[in-house]
């Protein structure tokens, strides 16, 4: 009975938490949108009207940022605000996270690799970018160096190590699946592996 309850919890909990998270986000944005409606003395039209307003405003903002003068003005304002240390710290952190989540940055230099260790073991890492900052390039010995990220299990943080490209083994494995495998310390099985194992078990049972 204990195993059955645990199995039910492990299957239902991720779904419930995901729905709760997205619903909370929907409620928060809907309240902000309704607040904007209230500024123009417009009562709540229907549930979700504020959320649709926020999405519309974000879409319009995306169109405006494609116009050079608007983008230049925004960058100018950000550069002025970056003079304040506290704002710079907060903005830079949020901007870095947003950049990681942006689809524009996906598959640009991100490569799953194996790094050979001294005891003949391997560590899974990720080449996040092929661009090496000039200060590091000048400080390192001759060679083709690349930054490799080693994420820590169950954590967003990781260790960035500079490794020679010749010491890396490229792996034909998608960034998303490899990252999920690394962050969960191998608990999260990559897609397709379970099906393969199930098929092998079925073949063994058939042979017996």
Textual characterization of the structure:
- The protein is α+β, with helices and mostly antiparallel strands.
- It folds into two domains: 2-88, no CATH class; 106-190, SH3 type barrels, CATH 2.30.30.
- 55% of the residues lie in helices and 14% in strands.
- It has a five-stranded antiparallel sheet.
- Helix 1 crosses helix 2 (49-64).
- The longest helix is centred in the first third of the chain and has 38 residues, at 2-39.
- The chain is flat and about 70 Å long.
Write out the strand line-up for the largest beta sheet, numbering strands in chain order: 4-3-2-1-5
Q: Helical content, roughly?
A: 55-70%
Please tell me how large the radius of gyration is: 24 Å
Pairing-aware structural class of the strands and helices? Answer: alpha+beta
Number of helices: 7
Strand fraction equals 5-15%
Low-confidence stretches: 192-206
What's the domain count? 2
Distance between the termini: 31 Å
Q: Give the overall shape.
A: flat
Strand/helix succession: HHHHEEHEEEHH
Q: Report the average pLDDT across residues.
A: 77
Using DSSP, what is the number of strands? 5
Region (Disordered): 186-208
Keywords: Membrane, Transmembrane, Transmembrane helix
Protein name: DUF502 domain-containing protein
Transmembrane segments: 12-29, 49-74
Labels describing this entry:
2 domains; SH3 type barrels; single chain; COV1-like; disordered C terminus; transmembrane; 14% strand; 5-stranded antiparallel beta sheet; transmembrane helix; membrane; DUF502 domain-containing protein; alpha+beta; 208 residues
